[in-house]
Amino acid sequence: MLSYQHAYHAGNLADFHKHALLAWMLDYLTQKPKALSYLETHAGRGLYDLSGPEAAKTGEARAGIQRALQQDWLPPDHPLLQALDQIQHMHGPDAYPGSPLIARYFLRPEDNAHLAELHPTEHEALAQVGGFAHLHRQDGFAMAQAVCPPTPRRGLLLIDPSYEVKADYDAIPRQIAQIARKWNVGVIALWYPLLTDARHVPMLEALRQAHPQALLSEVGFPPARPGHGMIGSGMFVLNPPYGLEEESRRIEKLFARL
Fold this sequence. Notes:
The protein is of the alpha/beta class. It has helices spanning 13-29, 53-58, 60-63, 65-70, 79-91, 99-106, 120-129, 140-147, 167-182, 201-210, 244-256; strands at residues 37-40, 47-49, 95-97, 112-116, 134-136, 155-159, 187-195, 215-220, 230-238.
């Protein structure tokens, strides 16, 4: 679990799918004057350098966010582009935000944030940009279980594990069920990879059976390199904000053209 570093994959097609929907949700939620809480179980370092050796080694950002920007996949007023523009203005044209800094763009002074990251190097880097939030160097599910229901009760939880621990697939439905019972008004968003070996399918079936009203958004794309097992990206959202289904279908149509 402590070997995964997202710098090799930052800005890939899965990030584009996940972050486009996350930015849309945060933009929608912060349009109302009521304060909210933002929680994240696997925050990563928060800020990535797409000119670095990690991104160059995989080329995933070139096929992802960089391609999306060059080909104008999103309208200029899309919330993700608004966040990205500010972050690149602050940190340079090759900067790419992880979900914590996307959240930071939208969160207001009255909002509350909790970010968990267990990897020591990633947590240290997160501390450099995550001063707006309560930082937790602990298991993200343990943090969510302890904090939920948060104050304010209105808000969003992003669950975005690396899935390097295969037990995550078995544990996630149980974890989400427990959190949803404690925080029945929270928007709970789970990202998961679509894999050639279909190991995600039993988890997804359990989630859909337990939460039939949740929103499901899946996109497919070519593997990043020969033999790479991830061929798509999924988001499973409990209590989806109004309009998210329409936005998710629009994003899915972009991927259908790949």
